[in-house]
Predict the structure.
Amino acid sequence: MTPPVVSTPGDRLTIYLGGIQARPLISEHDHPGVGFCVIEAPIGPRTLAGPLHTHRHEDGCWYVVEGRFAAQVGDEVVSGGPGSLVLAPRGVPHTYWNPGDEPALYLEMCWPGGLDKYMRSLGDLLAHPGENVLEDVARMSEEFGIEMDWASLDGLMSRHGVELLTG
């Protein structure tokens, strides 16, 4: 049985991922066997999280706490404000962004757990990027069962008026 967990703001690690900060609230890394993860993530105005990508192992959803949030899941583009929930099933390409002019905050929930381990590894990689950072990200993502569609970036940014912030 997993013991009760209380996550307080002082306990949380912040992982810097370009224009997003990921703060695991409940994670497989800190609580092995919990079976899911919840990540609090502020995202800057007009910021794209990343290219379309597909998770082979996790289902996920985003719950919007503050600001505006938009996502592409498969071929559908959806958006919402506080209280909205967007599901991104495993095996379906997706990405998300803040379409607004103000910062946004969302909770990302994934099951089974493990996405938090990917985010920690990605944060470490981005903190000390090599010469071929996109190749390194692609290789690491593949190790975690995530396939990146780098060719989607330009179209997403131009269609939605957002940028991919890398630092």
About this structure: Helices lie at 115-127, 133-143, 153-160. The chain has one domain: 13-160.
